[in-house]
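Question thread 4412

I'm putting together a teaching handout and wanted feedback from people who do this every day. The idea is simple: show students a protein as raw sequence, then show them the structure tokens that encode its fold, then repeat with a second protein so they can compare. Below is the first pair exactly as I plan to print it.
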Amino acid sequence: MNVLIDEYPLVVLPTLACQYGLNEAIVIQQIHYWTQKNKPMSDGFVWVYNSIPEWKRQFPFWSERTIFSILKNLKNLGLVIAERKSDNPYDQTLYYRLDHEKFGISISQTLQDRKSNTCKINNTDITIDYNFEDFWKA
């Protein structure tokens, strides 16, 4: 079995990981992926719905508690909007979408900062060196 080719990949962008953390970047990208596959609802927005166990199937390497914490953090940052869309009080399904307006502002600044190959993690400047010559010499 060759898992490097046969398994469906998750995508992570270094810019998102530097800005929001690796776990958050993976979830952001996955929400974006699913919104590209769905159609707008009556409010004009494209929403993704998954229960925590359904998210767990997409992220089997995290616990349900970790997934809950990541989604809560993204909601608290204002990057993800989560709403119940059903009028049925027994339907507690949460729908998620990215707040593209908030993203546009914070990501555009991050992309400008990335030109210097530096990102901030916990208020510390980290330089990303894309020169792999030394790596191959080892």
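The second pair follows. I'd like the answer to focus on this one:
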Amino acid sequence: DAPRAAFMLHAGDLINRADKDADWGEWFLAGGSLHAESPCIATPGNHEYKVTREIAGVPTKIELSKYWRPMFAFPENGPEKLRETAYYVDFQGMRIISLNSNEHQLDQAPWLEQVLSNNPQRWTVITFHHPLYSTAAGRDNPAIRLAWQDLFDKYKVDLVLQGHDHSYGRTGL
């Protein structure tokens, strides 16, 4: 539908099961030649992580898919703990920032403030997986709001794109 698109942006959940090679193969097969022809900006969703420890059925430790970094070559300009999952790129007057909403949310805030405060671009777009405000009942994310929303407001971020709820929602200005 958009043959002249300069890149693709994915807000997480590219696959269903983090460490299943077949899931990654299906993702690349579904994209066909687009993956070879168009740059991709992706942020990891919860499906790119596997639970490695639970207590009483509640995940207490998660781990990024072993396939994430070999599959992509994203900038390594983000926080040390989140290589190629939190990063930014500048493109034609726009700074696109990928945040990792799965882990270390508070640790990303100082880095995010530095990236936003030193932004020479006209437009700022931020993408991550879990929404600040969910359109689905029971899926609210107050910890993510606490970590990042004040920075979005302070630096007047133009657009925030999220994926987890697979729905459309918008806030007022």
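Top answer:
Good format. For the second protein you could add a caption like this: The chain has five helices and eight strands. The mean pLDDT is 92.
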